[in-house]
Amino acid sequence: MSAVAVVGAGPVGLAAALAAHALGLDPVLLEARPRTAARPGSRAIFVHRATLDHLDRVSPGLGESVFAQGLVWRTKRTLWAGRQVHVRTYAPTAAVPFTSLPQTAVEDLLLRACDAAGIRSVWGDPVQEVHSTPAGVRLRTEGGAVHDAGHVIAADGARSRVRAQAGIALQGDTSTTEFVVLDVAADVRSDDAERVFHYRHPGAGGRNVLLVPFRGGWRVDVQCRAGDDARDLVARAPEWLPRVLPQAPDPRITWSSVYRFQQRVADRFTDAHRRVLLAGEAAHLLPPFGARGMNSGIGDAVAAARAVRAGSVDHYARSRRAAAEANVRAAGAALDHLLATGAGRRCLQWAAATASPVWPRAGHWLDTAPYGPRIRAVGY
Ligand SMILES: Cc1cc2nc3c(=O)[nH]c(=O)nc-3n(C[C@H](O)[C@H](O)[C@H](O)COP(=O)(O)OP(=O)(O)OC[C@H]3O[C@@H](n4cnc5c(N)ncnc54)[C@H](O)[C@@H]3O)c2cc1C
To answer: Which residue from 28, 36, 43, 147 has its CB within 8 A of the most atoms of ligand 1, so it is best to mutate?
Structure first.
């Protein structure tokens, strides 16, 4: 019997396995996908400093490796209908609080660290049944294998089988507004990389557009308007993309997707016997704006391993659920700002854009509001 079984080898499961190993818990990692199956898309590209620090603690040098592979943008710029309302460039000497690279690259580095640590892993066999008792958990896979463990860290993503088997529901909302996301391949250099947010981009039919550089390309998020057909917007991307991303005049789209803002949290982060701990997207669904999903999930992973080691599962369940709820509130504030459904908020945004040349704080507010309030206090 293992002290801990980690279900799911996404970024959260890999981090949980490393954290458990660092605490001497000898984890086993169980993943549904075959090990060689490639995962598409950039997805979580913003790796926060707190996450890099977590990774360095669970595997010395890992955070530094992630940082070294990523790209740092030092300028953030916001425009309103094509006119600049805010710009800030951080000095090259300033400490940088993040790095930007595709989630797949982060996962590769985490997996290599798991291999180097000798962590046992089983791939290509989904966990199907979860039977928790006061003494431990028995997992049965689709292939018929049985794994007994003292505790299970469930990091099996948004459609978590473990969560369903534990009888835990997700509560919350999904926005009706759709967002189109595209990855565009490009050789972006840190020196000239900028994060740019456009309110009412004239080249995108007045839609809000976020451009974020990462190692290997650009991430383009477009907020659909009422009545838009998001799939049609994706299909017509070769026509509008050069107007939105002049940095890549001959754009090669490597991935596209359509998503909605999700703000959902599990009722409970542990089961009745305190043997199953939910982490990452198995426990909460958060929108990309604000980069809370993977970053807070890795925070969960590290806290879950510590809770198993210390026998403080209840504390884990309470504190990480509180963190997830704070993240959901922050995401809700970001969404309200992006949608600007009320006339009052639209007036406020317009007034801020008008005042920004003479009142820089108004431009600063327009720059930060799309991501919601900072929530470092809750530990990401
Ligand atoms: C289109 C899109 C864009 C995104 N953009 C961003 C972004 O910009 N910023 C951001 O922070 N986040 C973003 N995210 C979210 C980010 O990808 C997630 O927060 C992150 O992947 C969560 O990691 P996780 O390990 O919890 O779950 P996952 O990455 O989903 O990993 C779960 C793992 O569990 C495995 N699994 C599932 N079921 C079983 C089972 N029964 N048995 C064993 N294994 C199982 C899966 O195969 C998978 O490998 C985006 C997501 C999507 C889909």
So the answer is: 43
